[in-house]
Amino acid sequence: MAAQAAAAAQAAAAQAAQAEAAESWYLALLGFAEHFRTSSPPKIRLCVHCLQAVFPFKPPQRIEARTHLQLGSVLYHHTKNSEQARSHLEKAWLISQQVSFSYVKFEAASLLSELYCQENSVDAAKPLLRKAIQISQQTPYWHCRLLFQLAQLHTLEKDLVSACDLLGVGAEYARVVGSEYTRALFLLSKGMLLLMERKLQEVHPLLTLCGQIVENWQGNPIQKESLRVFFLVLQVTHYLDAGQVKSVKPCLKQLQQCIQTISTLHDDEILPSNPADLFHWLPKEHMCVLVYLVTVMHSMQAGYLEKAQKYTDKALMQLEKLKMLDCSPILSSFQVILLEHIIMCRLVTGHKATALQEVGSQRCQTGNWELTNHTLGLYCVSVNCMDNAEAQFTTALRLTNHQELWAFIVTNLASVYIREGNRHQEVVGDIDVAFAEALQLGPAGLWPQHEGCHHHERRGQTLGVSF
Known about the structure:
Elements: H1 2-37, H2 44-52, H3 61-78, H4 82-99, H5 102-118, H6 122-134, H7 140-156, H8 160-176, H9 180-197, H10 200-216, H11 221-241, H12 245-264, H13 284-302, H14 305-323, H15 329-349, H16 352-366, H17 369-382, H18 386-399, H19 403-420, H20 424-439
Helix pairs in contact: 1-2, 2-3, 3-4, 3-5, 4-5, 5-6, 5-7, 6-7, 7-8, 8-9, 9-10, 9-11, 10-11, 11-12, 11-13, 12-13, 13-14, 13-15, 14-15, 15-16, 15-17, 16-17, 17-18, 17-19, 18-19, 19-20
């Protein structure tokens, strides 16, 4: 018996030593990989080599799954080798389901669906996300994040009904797990989509409920103020869309005060106790630019053109600073919308040469010829060059496949025919077509890509906000 016990002890010691050695080589390779990834500049090839060196050791399935995820993530974010990235992410997804490794499983599903969408394989992304959502109900953070992701995918496909349904499911789930903060994010996101669909009767009670949730929620001050900004932006947009310019003023004043409050708050590094609260709508620097943008929209509708120019200049200056450090697509969208407004403002105030220079700037920022042709058409109308205006609008119509822009261009082309005075049939035809299109379209959203569902890293930059 003693001999058997001694042999068992020796075997256990040998197994422990082997496990310790295995852990040592894995940690060493992982440390080298992270060192190369975070080098300046990053040494991605060496990082990939270190991670690939894990597999010949035949590691346990949990390490294998995590390594496939790490390789897939590095290849996806830092290279153009989408085929290898997809292969590693698919393996991470499959293996992690076998060993019930939640973090790897849901991170792999999220990244893999993004990759599928980039490759125009939306039909592969949606069932993957649905399955991940189905099996993630016991992990609140991932369940909410995947619901946001699928809702955003439906939004980009213009399937707003499905997106609203998912956001409603998310709001109810957040309520059940005790996260009023994330419940408000789901409901406000749904309100934004309802505004895009022009379902105004549903928007009003939803915004009322959101207002109550935001006021009653007690939590991180920056998160609370960001919810209030989201809520007020939707209210202001709702009023502007309805043409109620005077009704906007109280909400707009609150919005400006709110963003000034946020600019004085310091980021709190303490993580929320509820995992479902680990979301942030927008970085406060982005919110600042958005508030400037909404103020410009109001000033243009109210006829305060000097004020519109002043706020546009402030917003563009802030954007230039941010874009040196942040390449987020939403910043480019903000810049394009601001340029569109300032160009219209220059045309109305008679600064036509400046407007023409900014049309060129718009082309450089967007790479969008049809938008530039349309803006040039408006410029030609302002200087009474109707033949040139017609040519620009016609070119823009030929290039665009965007329904809202198409209807807008047709309407402006009809105005050119009216000014020429002898093209009645063409005017009637264009207006009939534009009206038919308008019946099928909702208003454009504040931004083309819904950014409210991502968890952003906190930033320590100082905001210069003044109204």
